[in-house]
Amino acid sequence: MPQTQPPDLPLPPAQRPAVGPGPRRSFPTLRTVSALILREMGARYGKSPFGFFWALMSPMILILVLSFAFSLLQRAPSLGSSFILYYASGQLTFSVYAAITGPVQKSLTYTNALLQFPTVTWFDAILARFLLNLTVSMIVFFILIYAVAFLTGSAMRFDIGLLLASLMLTAAIGFGFGTLTCYVFMEGPVIGDIWHFASRPLFIASGVLFMYEDMPQLAQDILYWNPLMHTVSLARAAIYPRYDAAFASPAYVLGVAMVMLVFGLFLVRQHHDRLLSRST
What we know:
- This protein is mainly α and 280 residues long.
- The protein has one domain (29-39, 50-279).
- It is built from eleven helices and no strands.
- Helix 6 (160-187) crosses helix 7 (189-198).
């Protein structure tokens, strides 16, 4: 039986490939930052049942040690009658700065592998670590400060507006300094080692142990330029109604924080690819 050839059918015209980038995901930064926060929460608090509990206990242990040590040297704290509340007001405020600065400094090295994906940017890594540590440190602050005030029988007539303002200014300093040193310490690791050693007296120089008004005039003239001295004093003014931190300037603190943040973001934006390729 003879074979018949199939009829020649007209072929449809070839379609051109799409030139545009295709459909964009809605809120890409929000999705990426949320995923990074959940990832770090699982890594930090998910492996141990006492992960978040230790975040509460570590500053409380330091407060108790300071309170016991200075109660042997002084009859009464500089403010109020409770050593624990006095040192808690300074230590917990300072811990907001410390809890933000360190993680933000190491944002790029911590998420180096994830930054290879096009949907994860350097700003997502920095913002995620800032938001997570800000939230945790604020929760720890309010739980402990109210617990200490309740257990010591102190009046809990806090100025919540001023207290929140002082904490947000402290967080702004931590965010700005952490972003700036994220670049500086990756550019020159030796600078980071020197700073970690030289910054140990910062705990004392920020008014955690001694109030600004109790220091000699020379120390006041020097420590006035430390923005953390302003924020710690503002937090104490919110906790102690009779204390007025007249020297503290929120505008100065905000200005310093914004200058560091702008310079830090600019430097990281310009050099993050080179720094990440050098660290791998």
